[in-house]
Design goal:
mainly alpha; two-stranded antiparallel sheet; 3% strand
Length: 266
């Protein structure tokens, strides 16, 4: 299960999507997520899925990496679907005691499941094709106008970038600790909920110690390099729009207008 979490991981490849400006990918991800909440018809979801799979194909990221990331949200997905099926009022299709299934519940559960799957896959494409440094630069550039309001944009972007970069490291550290504990005959599977929670203590304690140690080492390294925030700092690779970025914005605009048009027509 630990290896199935793909958030924050980067898949190196030579594709058009990888070479795009990070601001385009951040804006595109937001537009795609917003579009998923603007409609509630299967035709629109099919169009959104086709658009997403086209982007995945162009990005040259293997589909198995995208699908593997869905395994980490299976429990959350099941909870959302089950609660919508049994708790949504409407036309009753099946009743057994206090349990009832409605037509509206099935429809809402299907939409919720599809929406969550497309949302996770769409977000994964951004992290798979964008390095943490590029994400930092893109976020800082997009949030730049907030500097006039006194918002520490650079610091916020830096913290988000560090958090994304540390996710794979902490997952790898958790996997190593679990294997070390299992080699000492630790059992994480058997027993009830309480015993399973207690068995996590030998994992969480060294994991927190390792995380704080890494955070301290990173802080010392940044201070040793005279890091004092983003004021006055220059970029080694300044962000600049070119023809592919403008074409990508045009494709996103066409997709958004097309989705709204399909939803209005249906």
């Amino acid at each position: 299960m630990i290896r199935d979490i793909t958030i924050g991981q980067y898949y190196p490849a030579d594709s058009v999507v990888h070479r795009l400006d990070p601001r385009v990918k951040l804006a595109g991800t937001m537009i795609y997520i917003i579009s998923l909440f603007l409609f509630d018809t299967f035709i629109c979801y099919a169009a959104a899925a086709l658009f997403l799979f086209a982007v995945i194909r162009i990005s040259k990221v293997p589909i198995r990496f995208i699908v593997r990331g869905l395994k980490s949200i299976v429990i959350l997905l099941l909870f959302a679907v089950v609660f919508n099926i049994f708790l949504t009022p409407g036309e009753v299709l099946f009743r057994a005691g206090f349990i009832r299934i409605t037509r509206e519940g099935l429809r809402l559960a299907a939409f919720m499941g599809i929406r969550m799957i497309l949302l996770i896959m769409g977000s994964s494409i951004m992290t798979f094709t964008t390095t943490p440094n590029q994400l930092t630069d893109g976020l800082e550039s997009l949030l730049g106008p907030l500097k006039k309001l006194g918002v520490p944009v650079h610091e916020i972007a830096m913290m988000m970038s560090i958090a994304l970069r540390f996710i794979p490291i902490l997952l790898e550290e958790t996997d190593k600790i679990m294997k070390a504990q299992q080699a000492r005959c630790a059992d994480f599977e058997s027993g009830g909920l309480v015993s399973k929670a207690k068995s996590l203590v030998p994992i969480l304690v060294p994991l927190f110690v390792s995380a704080f140690r890494r955070a301290n080492d990173l802080a010392l390294a940044m201070e040793a390099r005279c890091y004092r925030g983003g004021e006055g700092r220059t970029k080694m690779k300044p962000l600049c729009y070119h023809r592919p970025e403008y074409a990508a914005y045009g494709i996103l605009a066409v997709y958004f207008v097309l989705i709204i048009g399909i939803n209005a027509a249906v």
